[in-house]
Design brief:
This protein is α+β, with helices and mostly antiparallel strands. Helix content is 59%, strand content 15%. The protein has five helices and six strands. The strands form two sheets. It has a four-stranded antiparallel sheet with strand order 3-4-6-5. Strands 1-2 form a two-stranded antiparallel sheet.
Length: 185
C-alpha cells in the first residue's frame, strides 16, 4: 500500500516537472520557435480553435516564424489573434502565408522573461509540495487506521522527501538552462 502511494507520488511529480518544461517552451527566447504560438487561439467561424489546428507553423530562420493556414479565408482571423496576443509580434501576410519577424530582445525584456520563468518554476515547486503534502496525509491515515506501522510511515516519509528534493533539483536545473537561453545574446 505504501509503495503504491510512493509510486503514485512519483508519477504525479513527473507530470508536474513535464508540465513546467512545456510551459517553458512558450516563453520567448532569442530564437524563433513554433512553440511560441502554442497558447494562441483563433475565433474560427464562431468557435475558439487553437492556432496549431488551423495552420502549419514553422521557424525557417532564427528570427522568423511562418504560419500557413489550411483555409486561406481564416488568414485575417489568425492575424487578429496574433496581434491581440501578449507576444508583441506584428504579422505580415502575403495572402497565403503569415510571417512573424522576432525583434532582438532588449536587456530589460530579457530580465522580465527571466522573472516569468522563475515564476513558472515556483509554480512547479508548489505543485510538487502539494503532492508531497497529500501523500503525507494519506500515510498518516494509513497509520491511524492501523494498516501501517509508525516505522513504515517514517521510512515512507523519508523516501517521499528525497523524491521531492530530487524533483525540485530537476526544476532548478531546467530553470538554469532556460535562464541561460534567455540571457544568451
Amino acid at each position: 500500500m505504501i509503495d503504491d502511494l510512493l509510486q503514485d507520488a512519483r508519477e504525479h511529480m513527473d507530470k508536474s516537472v513535464e508540465s513546467t518544461r512545456i510551459k517553458f517552451q512558450s516563453v520567448r527566447t532569442g530564437r524563433a520557435s513554433p512553440a511560441l504560438l502554442d497558447r494562441i487561439s483563433v475565433d474560427y467561424y464562431g468557435s475558439v480553435t487553437p492556432l496549431k489546428q488551423l495552420s502549419t507553423i514553422s521557424a525557417p530562420e532564427a528570427r522568423m516564424i511562418t504560419v500557413q493556414p489550411y483555409d486561406k479565408s481564416s488568414i485575417k482571423a489568425i492575424e487578429r489573434a496574433i496581434m491581440e496576443s501578449d507576444l508583441g509580434l506584428t504579422p505580415n501576410n502575403d495572402g497565403t502565408l503569415i510571417r512573424l519577424v522576432l525583434p532582438e530582445l532588449t536587456e530589460e525584456r530579457r530580465k522580465q522573461l527571466v522573472k516569468v520563468v522563475r515564476g513558472l518554476t515556483e509554480e512547479g515547486k508548489v505543485a510538487l509540495r502539494n503532492i508531497r503534502r497529500d501523500v503525507m496525509h494519506d500515510l498518516k491515515e494509513l497509520r491511524d487506521a492501523g494498516e501501517a506501522g509508525a516505522d513504515d510511515e517514517h521510512r515512507a516519509e523519508e523516501a517521499l522527501q528525497k523524491l521531492t528534493d530530487d524533483k525540485v533539483k530537476e526544476l532548478d536545473t531546467l530553470l538554469k538552462g532556460k535562464e541561460a537561453e534567455i540571457l544568451e545574446v
